[in-house]
């Protein structure tokens, strides 16, 4: 089922600005139903959770609906869904939780494909625990899987890897990495922040022990979500306030939850499920059909973008070359500053950001020019917007 672009775009008031937004990897625009869900939650009777008054029950419902929505989105039990302020915050939290079990002589494995939020928390936790860090290098724009076989050992406690690079778009074979990690007795922590915006997540199928994502990358409010098997969470003991609950997953959520953010994040999942639901019988089925339509739409836009970039010849270098990747393209401009290109495009109401986007490892490993221009597509983008970007870039390059 194809996406009805006009109908989809009608839900985004910010698109009336005329700006062509190609900054999806940094965060998408917000549809009206998400903002309305946040406002409705804040304006209704609301208090600390309980069952005695409507205000308490409203808070309880916001939490329950949030967990149910992300259970459907990520295919895990609702009791395996943990809310956090951001994916970075959740990763820092869980690096501390997990490092409690590490000892000197243990090892962890990281990759050069990562956003720094899936690097620095683990490196810093390893330094405190006296644990060694092994690195998986890049083979072009992709991970060298042979490195996993060489470095994994019975001493490995954790493997952390992205499900999709936020700058190159590369989608590594997470299931294969998971199987290698588990064969060595290690846990797999997956940064799915960029991946979850473009692929329907199935945490068990990926083999991820922990999977983290950010709703604001797929139309939701600014927060983070971590998914894990409830039994695995039961085995972790976070530092927490003595009177706070020890029930999973709530013992990993510190302080009063932001009920309005939970409601907005729930509305984002429902919005995704309604993009092209077909005759889906439940929310997971509707999500499956909608993501299939999103994928088809984004692949068409990506093909148009790549054709246009090739037409610009050697004035443009495309660094996103993985066989399997998201519709995110990193480019540099021969002899020209990408920051200046961003500013020129902005005068044409085209937002395509320049920078390194917290992707320190791939920029260093591949010696990528900084800043580089990132063109990140989202479901609300159109062929006409691709043409506007390509025309503006050609003007800049002269």
From TrEMBL:
Write one Pfam family the protein is assigned to: Aminotran_5
SUPFAM superfamilies named in the record: PLP-dependent transferases
InterPro entries of this UniProt entry? Aminotrans_V_dom, Cys_dSase-rel, PyrdxlP-dep_Trfase, PyrdxlP-dep_Trfase_major, PyrdxlP-dep_Trfase_small
Which superkingdom is the protein from?
Answer: Bacteria
What is the name of this protein? Cysteine desulfurase-like protein
Q: Which Gene3D superfamilies match?
A: Aspartate Aminotransferase, domain 1, Type I PLP-dependent aspartate aminotransferase-like (Major domain)
Q: Identify the residues that the record assigns to the Aminotransferase class V domain, covering every copy.
A: 21-389
């Amino acid at each position: 089922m194809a996406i009805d672009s006009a109908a989809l775009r009608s839900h985004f008031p910010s698109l009336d600005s005329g700006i062509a937004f190609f900054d999806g990897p940094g965060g998408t625009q917000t549809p009206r139903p998400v903002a309305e869900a946040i406002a409705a939650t804040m304006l209704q009777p609301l208090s600390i959770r309980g069952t005695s008054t409507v205000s308490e029950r409203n808070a309880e419902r916001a939490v329950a609906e949030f967990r149910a929505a992300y259970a459907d989105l990520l295919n895990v039990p609702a009791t395996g869904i943990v809310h956090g302020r951001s994916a970075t915050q959740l990763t820092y939290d869980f690096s501390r939780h997990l490092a409690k079990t590490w000892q000197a002589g243990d090892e962890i494995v990281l990759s050069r494909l990562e956003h720094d939020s899936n690097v620095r928390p683990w490196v810093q936790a390893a330094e405190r625990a006296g644990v060694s860090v092994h690195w998986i290098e890049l083979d072009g724009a992709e991970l060298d899987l042979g490195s996993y076989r060489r470095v994994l050992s019975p001493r490995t406690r954790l493997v952390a890897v992205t499900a999709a690079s936020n700058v190159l778009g590369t989608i590594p074979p997470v299931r294969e990495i998971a199987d290698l990690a588990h064969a060595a007795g290690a846990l797999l922590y997956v940064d799915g922040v960029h991946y979850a915006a473009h692929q329907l997540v199935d945490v068990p199928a990926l083999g991820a022990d922990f999977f983290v994502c950010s709703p604001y990358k797929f139309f939701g409010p600014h927060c983070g979500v971590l998914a894990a098997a409830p039994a695995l969470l039961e085995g972790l003991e976070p530092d927490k306030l003595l009177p706070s609950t020890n029930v999973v997953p709530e013992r990993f959520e510190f302080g009063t939850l932001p009920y309005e953010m939970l409601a907005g994040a729930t509305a984002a999942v429902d919005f995704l499920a309604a993009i092209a639901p077909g005759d889906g019988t439940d929310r997971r089925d509707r999500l499956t059909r909608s993501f299939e339509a999103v994928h088809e739409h984004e692949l068409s836009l990506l093909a148009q973008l790549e054709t246009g970039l090739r037409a610009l010849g050697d004035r443009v270098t495309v660094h996103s070359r993985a066989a399997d990747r998201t519709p995110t393209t990193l480019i540099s401009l021969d002899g020209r500053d990408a920051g200046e290109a961003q500013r020129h495009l902005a005068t044409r109401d085209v937002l395509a950001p320049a920078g390194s986007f917290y992707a320190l490892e791939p920029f260093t490993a591949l010696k990528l020019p900084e800043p580089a221009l990132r063109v990140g597509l989202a479901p609300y983008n159109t062929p006409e917007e691709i043409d506007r970007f390509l025309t503006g870039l050609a003007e800049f390059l002269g």
